[in-house]
Amino acid sequence: MRLLGWLLSVSLLFPATMRGVKFVRGKNYARVILRLSSPVKYEVGKIKRKGKTLLYVDLYGTNPGRVKSRYYFESNLIELVRIARKDMKRERAVIHLRNFSYYRVFYLPSPPRVVIDIFGKKEIKEEFTLSKQLGLKIKKIAIDPGHGGKDPGCINERLGLREKDIALDIALTLKELLENGGYQVILTRKNDSYLSLEERPAIANSEGADLFISIHVNWAKRSSARGIEAFYLNFATDSESERVAAKENETSSKSLSQLKGILKKIALNEKVRESKALSSFIQRGIVSNMKKFYKGIKDLGVKGAPFFVLVGAEMPATLIEVSFLSNSVEGKRLSTQIYRTRLAYGIYLGIENFVKSLEEK
Ligand SMILES: [Zn+2]
Hints:
alpha/beta, Immunoglobulin-like, Aminopeptidase, 2 domains, six-stranded mixed β-sheet, 18 strands, globular, binds zinc ion
């Protein structure tokens, strides 16, 4: 009885549980993700100890669940992450930093998680290297096939088609096209595996990718809805864009309003302009290529919307909705290999034109 009472009081005092700690790391970047069972109040601080910097995140009303007390790192930025009870009110995650230039901490809802990004010192590049003179700024491209594993994305049961398979198929073709074009390509997933939304841009960051391209298939309740559209990270300007963002974020439109603070901090920087340009080039690339082969290709344009998967990407980033799986004509087309290959080729053309536009500058 006493034990039960104790358990009850613990669960009342600390209603949120830590669900896990995840990492993505690269040469000059690391992301630590603290997963939680429910939203919590959190605080960030910094302590200097023996010339070292300890960054901490306090999670109020949180119990440690089954997380380990120590996570060691194979990283030049982070030595280790410790999870410990700070006092009666909070659980503390301490990140022992090695060599870093700056960090940022933000919260993402559903599922609740606190994300910590650590950036290393930027290598000082020579101002007039040969590659810059030639305008070869874009070398490495990260392709992100939407969904995967336990998350199928949208499904057309009648046609037996799932978004995750189509996105991966297009991504693999695009990879081949880009590699033949002399680019280096990184895939966030190479097969039918699950990857959380916040891990995807972190992979692109850790690999030092120059562009981030997330590939998705659209779905609408209205079966007549069809067309191609591209998005960059920004506040949504219309309810239709908000709908797409809510669908891809696996969350309600309502919780998108929580993102406003994050967007102010992260998204609204110089990358918005570049991401919008990248989205426009790719949109034009796909639409013009598909119009050569098919009737009734609808250009839905380029829009800003708050996609979790684009938050924190350190390079121009876009999310493409290649067609609607909910539409009978586009659904049938999506079932064919040739349609998918042509979509990939359209994206490739868009990337090529974007890169050319940079060279002309
Ligand atoms: Zn999707």
